[in-house]
UniProtKB/TrEMBL annotation, chain A:
It is found in: Cytoplasm, Cytosol. Coiled coil: none annotated. The lineage of its organism: Eukaryota, Metazoa, Spiralia, Lophotrochozoa, Mollusca. Keywords: Cytoplasm, Initiation factor, Protein biosynthesis. One of its GO terms (cellular component) is cytosol. Residues 1-197, 471-505 are annotated as: Disordered. Gene3D superfamilies: Translation initiation factor eif-2b, domain 2 (3.40.50.10470). It comes from Plakobranchus ocellatus. This is Translation initiation factor eIF2B subunit delta. It holds the Pfam family IF-2B.
UniProtKB/TrEMBL annotation, chain B:
It is found in: Cytoplasm, Cytosol. This is Translation initiation factor eIF2B subunit beta. One of its GO terms (molecular function) is translation initiation factor activity. Keywords: Cytoplasm, Initiation factor, Protein biosynthesis.
Amino acid sequence: MSASPAGGGGGKQTGSKGKGKHAKSPRMSSGGGAPSTVKKDESNSVAAKESSLNNQPATSANSQQNLQHPACAASCEGAQGGSNTDPSKDQSKQAKAKKPKAEPVKKPEGGEGGEQKSKAQLKAERRALQEAQRAAKEAKKKEAGGGGNETAAPPAVKKETTAEKPKAKAQPTSQPAKKVKPKEMIKDAPKGETEEEMWARKEKEILAKSLKIDNNILNLGFQYFYHRVVGANARCIAMLAELREVIGKYKTPPEKELCRDLEKSLLAPCITYINYCRPLSTSMGNAIKYLKYHINRIPSDMDDRTAIGQLQDVIDTFIQENILKASEAVALYANSKIVDGDVILVYAASSLICQVLKTAHVKGKKFRVIVVEGRPRTEGKSMLRFLVRCGIPCSYIYIGSATHAMGEATKVFLGAAAMFSIGDMHSRTGNSMIAALAQAYNIPVLACCETYKFTDKVQLHLADSNLHARGRDLIDPGPHNRPSVLLTSPEDAKSSEGSGSGGTASGPNLLNLMYDVTKSRHITMLVTELGMLPCTSVPVVLRRQEDLVAEV
Amino acid sequence: MPGGEGDKASDLKERIEAFVYKMKKGNLTRSCDVAINTIDLLIRIISQAKFSNARELLKHVRAEGSYLQAGDPSENIIGNMIRRVLKIIREEYRAILSQDAGGEATIKFEDVSIAESKEDDYAKPTPNLKAFVIEAISELKTEIEGGAKNIADLAPNYINENDIILTIGRSRTVEAFFKHAALKKIKFQVLVSECAPFFHGHEMAKNLAEAKINTTLITECQIGTIMPRVNKVIIGTHSFMANGGLKAVTGTNILALLAKEHNKHVIVCSSLYKLSPLFHSTLKHASFNKFASPNELLDYEDAELLSKVEVIAPIFDYVPPDLVSMVVSNNGPQSVSYVYRLVKDYYHPDDVDL
């Protein structure tokens, strides 16, 4: 808490940049953030930020920055305040848990109310909500009636979860196997469960699980689940900020040591929950690793207050040094490669690339940007908006037509979600295509990545599970509400999709992968805060990081 | 009688105007429809034309053809059809002449020779020409109509059991190709790229799924991700150039490039009426590409962006011939490098410039 003005404030700033930017895109497509902000009068942090971005069309970059700053700081506090006021009237945990439940579920409703597609989804959501509320009520009754409330109350809910949980668990573990068998990968439907059913079940389970999780984490989980917070940096900062809060509330139970109990009883369930809402990104994984390392180093005789203060400092330093300062450094290094007259091609959105381009523009460099867009997330649009507000001349093109832009582009900048130790880049799906295309046109590809996203893991080809994004997004009506032919009527589409995966009735399967892997040979250069490196230097950097940690 | 002819002439004029209007508006999207409509018009034009020899007829058809083509300069099919008809007129003329002469030596020589023939001025009177020409054009029409089916019949040769096939957008020829393979009880899987911002792929995926083919819809940005798992790429094309390069729906270039990157075969299903004797000079060649409205990508309501951003929404991609493995045509499979020879077969060198 003590160090928050410097570290936390800064964190929020960039976080909001990332968050607002990314999170905005679905909202933009669904026609304005106003209704949604009305719904969330409890001032969900992201919602407030979005509205601050949407409703105040800041023309110049600086004013935007200024606007963001207080707005998001306030909203962050607001969110914290909101969750703090809740406990004040906390009579039963279930009642408390219900509130945030109802709130985020309504979000899409507010945003996409007028659209065809949402009807089916809404139904599912409402059903899920009702069920969860019923479960909560039941639990409440039992609690009121019996003495063993903590253990006796949840079973009604818990059985559901445990019954379905193994299935859910089986999916992530079966991913590697899927790599070998493309058919399975594409079908996405293990054990007769269609993808849509899986998502509906997940939504339910998130609600059911939430009874025991801290409110802050709960909010965060929902924001991840509904893609309100997107982007490696934004997700990582959001998570660290919430964990910082949660750790602040921690008290070591008697007869236990903080360094052991904190991780086991507080951190682990939170992280499991977050991971369940949406698989952790590498950036988040590394941050957690870092945090755990520091928790373990706390001497067992230190008192709670000092230890927690120390941990919060650790989090602040991580945000400050590894994320914010690092991205500034990356921007500086990358700038040395931008010259007057450049035509820079970027794909989708990346907070880091935004910063790079903005810094270059502020320094007075004359260049043009081509923003390449990928469906269905259309994150490029938020990138485009950011750049236009900065005053940078932009072009906008879909990825299918990217070849037309390649003729004039002189450099390609790509943002990474992670770098694997063999030098491959893990990033939003589509980046590998752009890199391959650029190479075919002999255009240098500069990948920008902070070193905290480096990982010693390696994934080949298909990077990720289908647990990130829904296939249904593919047939969402586009920005101009032109409904897909696959979406004749919501019910019809739903049923056809349900059986489509089984291959019985009409309706194709939908595949929506969120990440892909770019081969290191397609990347000319990697720009990090340590300077410009070849991709093959990733293990060197990892090694150095290990050494540094060992020294500390 | 004169009144009736006047009616006919005005009727023809109306039809021509309607066709040009349709082309300008972009109402005719199927290349097969464009071809058939053009041929129908040409048949009418020829049947109403008054001429004393083949040269006059050629001149007449060429003049009317240029007018048709002007409706949409980027639509190669119209030009192709006109050139095919011109070639038919030339052939029929020579056939009549050689029949009259009683020998066929000149024709054979003409077919083999690449050099342009200069001795022919098509000025000799040939009374039966019109009937022969119209008959030959009708044959051409039948050939075009049956093209997709002929190609589909070849499907079992190229689709194997358990194949994973990637395609993009919607092509009737490819759709028929897949459906025929499915009829032959071949189990395979199709991945359809949706072809944003036009989303023809959704329609394709729907139709294939209805035909009980295991179909998965993907976005363009996932092509790179799934390419390693794909066995082959089968696409349609709008038309193809004299060098074997394709003029196809946008996204095809990047698709073909990635297929090459992963060493996958790119098979193009196309009837030969799509073969154009023209070369593709540059991407921005006026008669090559068309651009869609920016509204396809950005909402007009989004004035902040739209007023400041250059939105590029090309409709076609040029795919260089080295990215294409083969063309499956209604005359069987063709090598891309052999396409130039087909051009010589189908079009007369004098007709390349209309």
